[in-house]
Design a protein that fits this description.
single chain, alpha+beta, 13 helices, 29% helix, binds FE2/S2 (inorganic) cluster, binds fe (ii) ion
Amino acid sequence: MAIADEKRSALSVPYAMEPELPDRVPKERYFDAGFYQLEVERLWPRVWQMACRLEEIPQPYDFVEYEFLDQSVIVLRTDDMGVRAFQNTCRHRGVTLVQGRGTCPDGFTCPFHGWCYGTDGANRGIPRRKSFAPHNVEPGDVDLVPVRCEAWAGCAWINYDDDVPPVRECMEPAATILDAWKVEAMRTEQWFAARLPVNWKLAIEAFVEMYHVVVTHPQLDIPGMRYSLRRGAPFDPRGFIDAEIEYLRVMSDGMDGMVHRNDVQVAEGLRGMELPADPTLAISTWNRSLNDAVVQWNRQRRVVMPDLNGLDELGFNDTFYQCFPHYFVLPMYSGASSYRFRPLGPEETLMEIWSMARFPEGDEPGVPTRPEIWEPNDERWPPIPAQDFSNLPRQQKGLHAKGFKYMRLNEHLEGQISNLQRTIDGFLAGLPYERLLPALRKVNVAPFDKPVLDLGF
Ligand code: FES
Ligand SMILES: [Fe+2]
């Protein structure tokens, strides 16, 4: 179909982003029930969803239940250490077969009347089978319903659409960079969960721009650091190193995810180093030295650690990669934070944060404990998420004001929000994947200080 024809046949999208004004987001996109329902019907069934971390299912026949909206899926580790998934529903009268997490070497037995299924999903037994009419127990028609499932980046991913390209292809260019960074070698060290009284897109958008950092996270605006230098402050190499180390320490505070405490310690070891007087040269010398020191320290303890400086040409200067739409990886030196967002309703979101680290082989932590879900104002939150969460409920409330019609985005600093919203419109309009993939290539990388981009639709 020619692109012009396709444009004409695209489904209409209410409260769509206006092509002429891509720096404005209609507020209804964040609470309108009809808009939310369109996402349920046209976005979520066609995107790769991060269903679980693989360390939750380390052994063959380990499984987790992945819940999303009103759907529940069994994600299973196979005996060849692959992954597969089934809809979590008994073919008799619909009882969910599993809850939470467990292991199922003998397959699944329904707790209601005892229908049995193998780990391949095949029906293995129906008590009093002969008393059913044959058309209700036809072989092949009473197996578990499979769901597409692939492993990548240390996670199992599911997709309800058989025609969508493989997960890795949908996550480029982040996929190439994260693979080179050996993201699959990361293991969960801490896992947090927040129930946020906001739309899922509002929650995501709080993390894809740096514009908020100076005001929301004042402790990160450290005099002498590279961000303050951008504003034209005079350069002092020693003060710069102290500020950088302080920044790493504050980022590490309470979560070890944004920056791992090991990397802060490695940076401490470089505190006395000499830097050139020229700021540009000094910053690149510091970056390269710290990268090398982190790599060396980690390789000495026999962990899988990529050469951070060798990744430069891949563009590995960014600390943030989106796996559209709902999963993020934020690599910093040897560690990473990662986020997942699941809508619970038009104005409610479950956000999870994993702090991930590298461990020597044989020293990896066991299956991570599932987190208790905290409210956004829970005092156990580390400082940085606590600050982000303090704004979000107020923002969701403020959007409803009669006088507030649309968000006005800074087209240079907050362009990623527009890029994300317009990619969502591409899904809601029912565009084919060959037209969506170029947009995914643009949103899956480096959201900070990113302009509004032409997505091709
Ligand atoms: S509902 Fe599962 S055996 Fe009846
Ligand atoms: Fe923030």
